[in-house]
Amino acid sequence: MAIRKITEYPEKVLAEVGKSITEFNQELENLCADMFETMYDAEGVGLAAQQIGLPLQLFVMDCEGVKLIAANPEVIHKEGKQSGSEGCLSVGKVPAVVLRAEKATLRAQDLKGEWFEREATGYAARCFQHETDHCNGKLFIDHLPKMRRDMVVKRFQKEKKWK
Ligand SMILES: [Zn+2]
Fold first, then answer.
1. Is residue 31 part of a domain?
2. CA-angle at 12, arms to 153 and 21, nearest 5°
3. Does some domain include residue 146?
4. Is residue 5 part of a domain?
5. Which of 11, 23, 117, 131 is catalytic?
6. 87 CA distance to ligand 1 centroid (A)?
7. CA dist., res. 13 & res. 51, Å (int)
8. How close is the Cα of 72 to the center of ligand 1, in Å?
9. In 3D, which of 128, 151, 132 has the Cα closest to residue 141?
10. How far is the C-alpha of 139 from the C-alpha of 15, rounded, in Å?
11. Ligand 1 centre distance from Cα of residue 70 (Å)
12. What is the reported pTM?
């Protein structure tokens, strides 16, 4: 296992729609192990392949008791609304309030290629939506009005400069 370098905004790969996962093999298992290690090291609750430079339909998460690997993920059902603070490892964890569905159902394939569905509410549901967005080349700041988006980017760039 190894900790991978996290890609940061505005690296192009973050805006790329991921390729479907078609092979469920040892290589995929190793990649997911690296993704978990990278996520825990960065103290995140979710990590998509785009965030380590790979445009794939793949993410891992461990958020409020929901720990899973999702290949070819899709949010198939959304219900209700929640407004809460959200951040992203690729944008320096600068927080911003994002409106999301309160309840979400994720459909994805596990390491063996078996399809599963998982329902979650609150923060874990937010994570489903955030990570599935990543797989489709979308960042949480893309949900913000332009002025707030610019503010998050500015703060991120400023903090990066001081690091
Ligand atoms: Zn993110």
1. yes
2. 120
3. yes
4. no
5. 131
6. 7
7. 8
8. 17
9. 151
10. 8
11. 15
12. 0.97
Structural domain boundaries enclosing 41: 12-162
**Residue at 95: amino acid letter:** P
d(CA 122, ligand 1 centre) in Å: 16
| Number of domains making up the chain | 1
131 is catalytic: yes
pLDDT confidence bin for 40, thresholds 50/70/90: very high
65 exposure class (CB count in 10 Å sphere: 0-12, 13-18, 19+): exposed
CATH of residue 139's domain is: 3.90.45.10
Residue 105 host element (H or E)? strand 103-109
Alpha-carbon Rg of the chain, whole angstroms? Answer: 15
**58 falls within a domain:** yes
Tens of pLDDT, residue by residue over 108-118, are 999 999 999 99
